[in-house]
Amino acid sequence: MSVVVVGSIALDSVETPWGKRENALGGSATYFSLACSRFSKTRIVGIAGTDFPEKGLDLFRRHNIDTEGLKIVEGKTFRWGGRYKSNLNKRDTIYTELNVFEKFQPQLPRSYRQQPMLFLGNIHPELQLDVLSQMERKPLVGLDTMNLWIDISREKVIEALQKVDIVIMNEDEIRQLTVTSNVYEAARRLIKLGPSTLVVKRGEYGAFLCHHNEMFSVPAFPVSRVIDPTGAGDAFAGGFFGFLGKFSNPRAADYRRAMVYGTILASFLVESFSTDTIDSIIDEEIENRAKELIKIITL
Amino acid sequence: MSVVVVGSIALDSVETPWGKRENALGGSATYFSLACSRFSKTRIVGIAGTDFPEKGLDLFRRHNIDTEGLKIVEGKTFRWGGRYKSNLNKRDTIYTELNVFEKFQPQLPRSYRQQPMLFLGNIHPELQLDVLSQMERKPLVGLDTMNLWIDISREKVIEALQKVDIVIMNEDEIRQLTVTSNVYEAARRLIKLGPSTLVVKRGEYGAFLCHHNEMFSVPAFPVSRVIDPTGAGDAFAGGFFGFLGKFSNPRAADYRRAMVYGTILASFLVESFSTDTIDSIIDEEIENRAKELIKIITL
Q: Which residues span the domain enclosing B241?
């Protein structure tokens, strides 16, 4: 099934203990769509400025990502600068320039509106709800969000959650949203709000899935050097959602295998700055890591 | 196979968001032996003062734990007081009174010296080495340690590591010992020091095993209320090591299943103060949770 994704397109400047990269391609929709397109036809919805580099568009084309929904408008692309601490678990934001992203009003091209899968990346929940209303038949819908929206627009986040099938969030966010410190208790409460499926991302500790009251847990793939974790959660979500798209009616076992593939895409992503690895890996490398990860969880 | 364990015996006063308990039975050897005795005959080596309550000895007897190596001497038992923060991941030590534990010079009773399995709980590495030298034939040896000994006696910790088969440590300790922030890289370096098996405990995130270059990862069992995490790592180690004792020559698959049982014993332990749950659960409850956990990691 083909996937429509809406989210941010950014130019990031990132510094980690392993080096730095200036104005490299980033943003949630970018990472998501590159991971997703490994498994399913992907259509992107986003906004960028006239400074957006041609090589960014090339990258999307190379991965057969439909960019009809990517609007280039007068002005500068969303820019973010950050610096990671030595253990790579914490980062400081140096600057955030929303630029053209500030006025982002996503409009789905006509050709996107009947697609069977929609992923609402991390944008304001009002915009997520608006995009959802543009779809002309009910797709399988996934959603991500962030602490900022929970802080300033909690009710709208909850309204959006109630209208989707799959929620993918990190553990601190579900704790914050449900005001519950125990993560499993937080997951139970979140599921009561409506979604049939919840994926809780736990960074270097992996992720767990709650799907129709069944749990599945997967560790992170053990990479020996994390170069830049920016976008790992988006690559996970893209790998997970894209893998589900391989099935016209994904079953419980497909959801579990999707957790493995999300994990593998995230593991490649963190091994380079920006999109370098995720752009260049071949399918066989993905399959080899998936096999290795499955061995790690097999009794 | 029967297991000899040496470690601390304590009376702990613990406060968590769920309440407090004064002078309750604790200490690494206590938690370890209660978990271990579920699967294998267990013999304890430790020291306590004349204030040690009769119900503590009753508890060991009820679980068929051999207390010939538990010395009661004039003075007070080791006491520790601590308070956990709201998310239960951090604690403050309120007081530490070593008392009779300060002069602990473990002596193995004659009947212990030919036993096939030995666990060197968290005591000074010099004492661990001394206990090991008292064994009259080479047992399967496990070892735990802590940040304090790595700080003040790093060379001795490494010497001890090199003489054992199984090292069980938490992730911050292996990072500290190997001076490596990436936990998988730290694990690789630790294994190069000698032990064929390493278990890395990660608290609420579970644990992973490296056994002859094969990895296995297991999540924590999802309990919805952690009452008191004190001793969870010791209960894990006891469940793990005790389960191995069921086999005269444990194989790779037994090590993996031992990870599951260590996880389950730790999950029961955290659901009450002190040893309450781990004392009272029945074998069927352990088996049921083990089955549930296996479902959580089965594709």
A: 3-165+219-296
